[in-house]
Amino acid sequence: MHYNILSELKNATRAKKDKISFPFTKMDFAILTKLVEHGYLKSAEKEAVGKKNTIAVRLAYKNKEAAVNDFKIMSKPSRHTYADYRSLPTIKQGHGLSMLSTSKGIMTGSEAKKQKVGGEYLFEIW
């Protein structure tokens, strides 16, 4: 699930790793692709290792500081949190990102506001 990926990303950046890989799922790949678009990661690519697919992620650093500082999980398997586009907050005065799972796919909070669509509020990252 996405919360495991976020904690592994945070731990890998703290350990100054350059690359990390995850088992492939469509949802995780969509989330990682959005994080690449917004500069939190260098790249996320699907790779085939034998019969299994993985996601190879290159981590991003800005002035030797990790691009991913911290995150906050909003939805878990035990507690799903939903939000409409009007109630989405600004994360860290615009320096963070919120992620939603909508009927139109994985979107950031700002994309959801523009398209006027709500969904499951997955997490915040900064």
Order of helices and strands: HEHEEEEEEEEHE
Structural class: alpha+beta
Round the mean pLDDT to the nearest integer and report it: 94
| Uncertain regions spanning at least 5 consecutive residues | none
Going by CATH, the architecture of the largest domain would be: 2-Layer Sandwich
Q: How would you characterize the largest beta sheet?
A: 5 strands, antiparallel
Return the CATH class of the largest domain.
Answer: Alpha Beta
The whole-angstrom Rg is 14 Å
Could you give the distance between the termini? 19 Å
CATH topology of the largest domain: Ribosomal Protein S8, Chain: A, domain 1
Total individual domains: 2
Number of helices: 3
- Number of DSSP strands? 10
What is the percentage of strand-forming residues? 35-45%
In one word, what is the shape?
globular
Describe the secondary structure blueprint for this structure.
Layout: H1 2-14, E1 19-23, H2 26-37, E2 41-49, E3 52-59, E4 61-62, E5 65-66, E6 71-73, E7 82-83, E8 97-102, E9 105-108, H3 109-115, E10 119-125
Antiparallel strand pairs: 1-3, 2-3, 4-5, 6-10, 7-10, 8-9, 8-10
How would you summarize what this structure contains?
With 126 residues, the protein is of the alpha+beta class. It has helices at residues 2-14, 26-37, 109-115; strands at residues 19-23, 41-49, 52-59, 61-62, 65-66, 71-73, 82-83, 97-102, 105-108, 119-125.
Please, could you describe this protein's structure?
This protein is an alpha+beta fold. The chain folds into two domains: 2-66, 2-Layer Sandwich (Ribosomal Protein S8, Chain: A, domain 1), CATH 3.30.1370; 71-125, Dna Ligase, domain 1. Helix content is 25%, strand content 38%. It is built from three helices and ten strands, in the order αβαββββββββαβ. The protein has helices spanning 2-14, 26-37, 109-115; strands at 19-23, 41-49, 52-59, 61-62, 65-66, 71-73, 82-83, 97-102, 105-108, 119-125. Strands 6, 7, 8, 9 and 10 form a five-stranded antiparallel sheet that branches. Strands 1-3-2 form a three-stranded antiparallel sheet. A hairpin with a 2-residue loop joins strand 2 (41-49) and strand 3. The longest helix is centred in the N-terminal third of the chain and has 13 residues, at 2-14. The radius of gyration is 14 Å and the shape is globular. The two termini are 19 Å apart. The model has no long low-confidence stretch (mean pLDDT 94).
